[in-house]
User: Fold this.
Amino acid sequence: MIQTIIKKGKVFPEAVPAPLVSKGALLIKVVNSCISAGTEISGVQDSGKSLIKRALEQPKNVRKVIDMVRSDGIANAYAKVKGKIESETVTGYSISGVVIAVGEGSQLFQIGDHVAAAGAGLANHAEYVDVPENLVMKMPQGMDFKPASTVALGGIALQGVRRADLRLGDMAVVVGAGVLGLLTIQMLKLSGVQTAAVDINDERLSIAQDMGAALIINPAMENVVDAIRNWTGEHGTDAVIFTATTGRSEPLSQSFQMCRRKGRVVLVGVVGMEIKREDMFQKELDFLISTSYGPGRYDRKYEEKGCDYPLAYVRWTENRNMTEYLRLVHKGSLRLDKLINAVYPIERVTEAFEALQRAQNKPLMVLLDYGTVDTDRLWDYRDHKRKILLSTLPVAKDVVNVALVGAGAFATGIHLPNIKKLAKKFRLHCVISRTGHKAKTVAQQYQACYATTDYQDALKDPEVDLILICTRHDSHAELAAQAIQAGKHVFVEKPLATSQEGLNAVNAFYADGIHNKPVLFTGFNRRFSIYAQEIKKHTDKRINPLFVHYRMNAGYMPLDEWVHEDGGRIVGEACHIIDLMTFLTGSSIKCISVDNLVPVNDKYSSVDNKVITLAYQEGSVATIHYFAVGNREYPKENMEVHFDGKSIVLDDYISLKGYGVRLNQIHTNASQKGHLEELERLYETLKGTNANWPIELWDMTQTTEAALMIMEFS
Assistant:
């Protein structure tokens, strides 16, 4: 499919793999999409800025880079930042089209529905989009796709009006007569609110007047505050809705000055935020922020999980706002005839964006067109191209050919650079990702043969030797089970499974043994680090059992983050440490005990603040302190191993110190946790130079079951 891409200040169409439909989502064949003259054009301009200019404008990100240098080293940090700066990005957040597939769990839509959809990173400028149900709205019967594609902008304007909370007969000022401002003016008129429009563009002011503004003001020609004071009989306006985009703070100060006592300013657009106390204090003004389309925006449970808010308690959610906008446009209550200035076919998207960046005769709103949808061929659209070939070179037979599933930050920041380092042993053959653009970008960067959004392409590919699974935790077991059943070796990132059912499905394949079956490896990398290997040399010579203490200062993560789902951080991260303890003891676990922190408020949780004690059959005892209440400046991981009058201390995989035992002196500038070494060890098994799996099946199973059991103590 064709999708709009931004890179280094340029916009262009590119062929990428088309998406599949996700759970709780809808696959939409796009007919029209609307370009945002504010947000999207700013994104294009920002992408063309140099690294130095970005650093000066975003000092917070400089601190992040400094922290990255400390943890990953200069070379790795530079590579990550360079990759981020030079990467391509997708754009768009407002479309209309026809539903061609309904995801599992979606109950409100059916194939053939005419819909509009919103959401950055979801409702992109692309021929096909996969959008969660709560961000999709049914179009009124008979509505044209072009005006419907402006739904996101309509939702933004309507939420700003709702935040202003104006009544019949009230007076309001709209600063900025762009698309959002002109929609806002019309909505206020429908509500019986007298409205003044402020803009430096006389042509746009003329449109504002035509659409219902009782007063138009060009601040370049007259004093805007005096004009509003005169218009309101010296009282001031009830509210100002700020829809313009500027980096200056003066327009915000003027907005406060235009208000009456107890009035309010609602920020919908962008403005400099140097607020003067004297502008607000004496009149006791309210300053409100309007968040995009309305309640539900940026709430993962609402947008991604489909958890709607009860209408009786939240009358206007983002979905209900945008649905109402569609109704008003279709009814003719809101006019778009003077707002939509041009429609370009998707193939001419470069021209469309250039038009919006012109100094003169800049259009208000530009749409992209993807062609009409033949309703008799809806099922045919589902067979759209999901695989993009990038290379026709012969596939190397002397290396392990890898299919990467999930091209997120961990895969691209850790595994793929390591695969590149081990080019004589591994080669990236293909990339599978939910988003086709991401799959293609990563595949091109690492010279893979193809990119796809369909997992079955890799499972059916006879050239694929190893499936590397780096998706969200909840999908690991299912993807791994499918791969081994297809005869593929599997490297699945931890955790192996997030439920006993998922683990059982994987283990069922090996019920009669592992002989002549695909290798299964879980990415418990700590045991392969040079530090763990050095410790193991000495603990294997012990006379008595081990006493091990491990501390993981995991860091606070808000409780609505995805890492707390599907087993949470214990199943998803503490499993590393459980595996390491078993590696050092070489024994099975006899019993587990758990104590939880009991927070006094809702910031912290017992689920990621635990003391875990593992007692092993051979007599060793290991305690794990996993907590989120520590300070991020304190090193993340520390381990003490005590035995036979000897002690070994591991400091964050940077250094190792022995007491009463002579160790090889190891020190690294950045944490070395075994990610490269685990690949090398897996290679030995896959190529037959080591008959044993890197981690035995019983061991991976024990670690997973222990983590699941620990979570039951929460």
User: Anything to note?
Assistant: The chain has a mean pLDDT of 93. The longest strand covers residues 25-35. The radius of gyration is 29 Å.
